[in-house]
Each structure stands twice: as structure tokens, then as C-alpha cells.
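Email to the structure team, subject: CT398-like coiled coil hairpin domain-containing protein model.

Hi all, the expression group asked for a predicted structure before they design truncation constructs. Nothing fancy, just the C-alpha cells so they can compare against earlier work. One-line instruction: predict CT398-like coiled coil hairpin domain-containing protein, return C-alpha cells.
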Amino acid sequence: MTLTAPARDQRRLLDVQALDTKLAQIVHRARTLPEHAALAALETTERTLRDELVAARTVASDVEREATRAEIEVEQVRARAERTSARLAAGGTPAKELQQLLAEAEALTRRLRTLEDAQLEVMERQESAAEAVAELEQRAAGLAGERAKLLAARDTALTAARQEHEQIGAQRSGAIGQLDKGLVALYEKIRERRDGLGAASLVGETCGGCRLPLTGTFRGVVTGAAPDDVVQCEECDRILVRSPDPELRR
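Reply from the structure team: attached below.
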């Protein structure tokens, strides 16, 4: 049995289709915001930077401990050298013991010089490690700022899209609520399985949905259909909305 619906409702169905198309476009735009891709790329960069920062902080911590050990060792040898120098300065030391003290003082001086050189090298590495950490932390702060800006831009765009979607959705509800219920049910069913396009204009002898010309047999069906008959494209099954005075009627 052929479904019928007022021809006026069929034509107004195109207005609903236009609103549905716009709603789909809004959703697509919200899903494909450039901020989404930028945030994903930024996340990859931040993840790499976090790994580098962990490694740099580990190196800095290890060098810090090494510097502490070097300082303690230098202080220990320096204190012993000072005690030895004090004993030598006090005088009255037997010749044999004096010779031992002099040898010890000389050995401690050499040892202290070696340790101080090593300590200087560690301090230089400590400074380099700290600079590396500071540089990475600065980069991390910069990325955090960039992330904040992207999130703000994304949220602003999503809010605008949501508001527009709500506005168009309200228009759509008002428009479709006035149409023939059977026509609406068919439209929704077709739209669900046809990528959101349930109705299309008949443009001359071509379906505005699949863009295919009508065959001779189907052309006769369309020509002979009453204004209130709901006609579906034989190729894509979409509702063909005819103008009040279509070219086919001649």
C-alpha cells in the first residue's frame, strides 16, 4: 500500500532535512576541531618531555649525591692536613716522627689537590645537570601554557557548537512536530540507514539524493503519482520530494 502524506508536508520535510544536515555538520565540526589534533600532538610531545625530565632529574640527583660525597671527602682530608700542619708548627717533635709528619703532610697535600680537582669536575657536572633540568622544566611550563590555551579555545568552540546545536535542534523539533506522523516515521527510518539523508528534492529527472537519473519505468511511476503519494527513489530509497508543478508532469 502506497503511503500518503500531504504534499505540503512532503515539501516541508526538506526544511527538516536541511536542519538535520546542519546538525550533522555541527557534530562533525565539533569532532574535528583543529584543537583536538593539536592537543593530541601536544600530549605526545609532553609525554616525551616528561620522560626526558625524569631522566635529567635522576642524573642531577646522582650528581648531587656524588658532589656531597666529594665535599665530605675533601673536608676530611683537609682537616687531617690541618692537624698535621699544626703538629709540625708546634715544634719539639723528634726527628724520626718529624720525618713521618713531613711525608704525611706531603701525601695529604697531593691527595687534597687530587680530591679538589675531582670535586671541581663534579661541581661542573652538577651545574650542567641543573641547567638541563631547568631547561626542560621551562619547556614543560611552556607546553603547559600552550595546553591551557588550546583547551580554552577547544572549550569555547565546543560551547558555541553545543549552543548552535541546541538552537537548531529546537527549530527541528518545532518543524517536524507539525508534519504527518507516518511521513516522519518513514523519513527517520530512511535517514538512519542512509547517512542522515532521508529526503531529497526531485531535480528535473534526477534524484537529489543519489544523483542518479530516473529510469523510464520509474519516471512513469513518478509522473502518475498523486501529489499526496509518497514516492521513494528506486535507487537509494530516499523520499523524493516533488515540486508543486514538477517538470515530469507534462
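Residues 7-27+180-241 form one domain. The longest strand covers residues 199-203. Ping us if the truncation boundaries need rechecking.
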